[in-house]
Amino acid sequence: MQDWKDLYRQSQADETTGPILFYNDTVLDHFTNPRNVGEMEPGERVGFALVGDPTCGDQMKLWIRVEDDIITDIKFRSFGCPGAIATSSMATELAKGLSLEEARELTDDDVITALGGIPEHKKHCSLLGITAMQAAIQDYLLKQMMAEAEDTDDDLP
Amino acid sequence: MIYLDHNATTPIRTEVLDVMGELQRTLFGNASSYYGPAREARAVLEKSRAEIAGCIGANPGEIVCTSGGSESNNLAIRGAARALRGKGRHLITSSIEHPAVLKTCQDLERDGYRVTYLPVDSRGMVDPAEVERAITPETLLISIMHANNETGVIQPVSIIGSMAGKHGIVFHTDAVQTLGKIPVQVSEINADLISLSSHKVHGPKGIGVLYVRKGTPLHPLITGGSQERGLRAGTENFPAVAGFSAAVSLALNTMERDAARITGLRDRMETEIANRIRGVKINGAGSNRLPNTSNLCFKGVDGESILLHLDLKGICASSGSACSTGSESPSHVLLAMGLDPHQAQSTIRLSLGRETSEQDITATVDALTMIISRLRSISSL
């Protein structure tokens, strides 16, 4: 019998023609060996976010550590489908080492491109990692602002 | 490969293939035509029909051949709804039916019918008392499945059937999951309409039957010819009907022995999983279940992620019903049983079959132990 992947390609079916789940090797690699899994202790250099996808129940926690406006480390935990796990893993890979400014430019399309594509109806999963990332950056920036405000308060006579 | 998705479909038996191959090679006649080969095809068709009828304690004239379980369910519900429009426009069903029943009922609602979707208890059972309370003078049909495809929970159809009969209401049951696993006898189920499917009992795909008790009012869905007593037009697919009858006869020959063996395997699997993996819930465990079905909720891990890990190890399983694969909404059956969406999303279904071995179960338990621990180390819950 022919390899089903060959048949699939020959049929020129795209991911929208049916609920066939066809993850490429890069996605499978990030699913089976997700990068940057873990947690961080809270701290002034750490931003944290907990986000959920109300359409499917996926949930994600993400931490970033920032030194001199650069994301030096990221950790995440995820309750989600293979699409959510793989895209979150790739999102952390892409963001690590970027400045906050650069990381804020990252989109779910960047994650999907880096993975070499994911099934059409799984694309919404890729939003989770990016949303968590942006929320963690916000959390960090807010913390900095509050810390600065406190510093300013201390300076007052 | 370890195949644990028998509630989705089953491998066709070689004996069945032999019967069908021989017929396809040697007999091409249209069973409704006038000449020798046609009469031969007709003879095969009627012999097979009688065999299927015999398997469920029906008369051959009460067996309508269809393209499968979904068509049988559609014919039963739409056919009865149309035929009995004069009586009323109310149907009763349950919230755990197969989509072939649920979507059909929803479609009828758009045509002005009213449908009561009965709840189930936390064990996944429909309460016959609730069925009786839902009956109105307008009620034309009650449709409650024989056993649920996701949890394997067997429904009290016999009681519901007698009750429907007492009220003079047509009773339909979707017995697609029970045929060949537990007894399906017309006299015990008290149903007027029973849906059956071939490929769930190691027969060919694309063939099923609807049992129609003599005298039950029914309109056809597919018109165009007088085949199947005018209830289902289309040239009769007699090789497939013969394949189905061979498959169901073979299944019934060894049903008791197979059921005992498969129950043993399933129970061992569930015990070992519960012993080795914490945070496991067996959905429907408190109920009378099909011998082969296990619906397992693993706290804090996503069902599809479990399935893909199993798939990468060559183990075929399912989350809920196969029809829901790729859809994002959690199982309607589990939600109806009161599970929260996260629990429903953390559930997989393992359904065993006649070729499942002790080694398959051992390998599956080992694989699951590893997979769950791995996914929990990632999980945010």
Characterize this entry briefly.
The complex is a heterodimer of chains A (157) and B (381). With 157 residues, chain A is α+β, with helices and mostly antiparallel strands.
Shape, per Cα inertia axes of chain A:
elongated
CATH topology of chain A: Sufe protein. Chain: A
Q: Quick one: CATH class of chain A? A: Alpha Beta
Main beta sheet of chain B: strand number and arrangement? 7 strands, mixed
From the alpha-carbon coordinates, what is the Rg of chain A to the nearest angstrom?
19 Å
Indicate the CATH architecture of the largest domain in chain B. Answer: 3-Layer(aba) Sandwich
Which consecutive residue ranges of chain A, at least 5 long each, have pLDDT under 50? Answer: none
Distance between the termini of chain A: 83 Å
Q: DSSP helix count of chain B?
A: 13
How many beta strands in the DSSP annotation of chain A? 3
- Strand segment tally of chain B: 12
- Rg of chain B, alpha carbons: 21 Å
Helix-strand topology string of chain A: HHEEEHHHH
- What's the tally of helices of chain A? 6
